[in-house]
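Changelog-adjacent note: as of this version, every example in the card shows the full chain rather than a window. The one below runs 210 residues end to end.
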Amino acid sequence: RAQPVPTATMASRAQHRESGGAGPAEGALMGKKAKPSKTQVGPDARVTGDAVLSGEAQVLDHGRVSGRSQVGEQACIKDEARVAGQAEVREQAVISGNAWVYENALVKGTAHITDNACIFGDAVVSGATTIGGAANVGPRARVKQSDHVVVYAPAAISVKRVDPRTHDGPAVWTAYRTRKDGVRVMLGRRPKKVSEAPKELLKLITWTKV
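Full-length structure tokens:
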């Protein structure tokens, strides 16, 4: 059974996870002999706070998993990707690049979140969806395929590595699917009315009429 990972034990845990074993610190925390773990944490990756890894989950490269988030089954966090808050990544989902999944978001299926994309709020991304670029998919999102998210930038943008929990990001317009084929529009990570969105963005929406 997966257990929360104290920060102080991460170095030893990472080494033992890569070899498929559980460290003595883990056994002591559980109060009994620990079962071998199939999770893997790379030498430069970090799992902190009360975050939980389970199944065959991997955190590789400089990936970070923190807060009370959960990564399970065959999910993989790699490159500079981050999972934080109470977010959950499971099944065969992959988070890569500089992407973030945070707050209460859920990414599952074979979904791939990459580049500088951010998935947050109570968003649910599933299926074989790929979301990249500087897309921001947030509250009420129910994304089941790649064309449920469209992005429009009126000019060339410069994307800096920032913490999306405290920085709004570049002025990129994103429209995404909500329940029952609804539409929500974001400018950066700020919600906007559909009537405020540029026509160029609205023309990209295919799952419903706007």
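Structural remarks: The domain at 41-202 is CATH 2.160.10.10 (UDP N-Acetylglucosamine Acyltransferase; domain 1).
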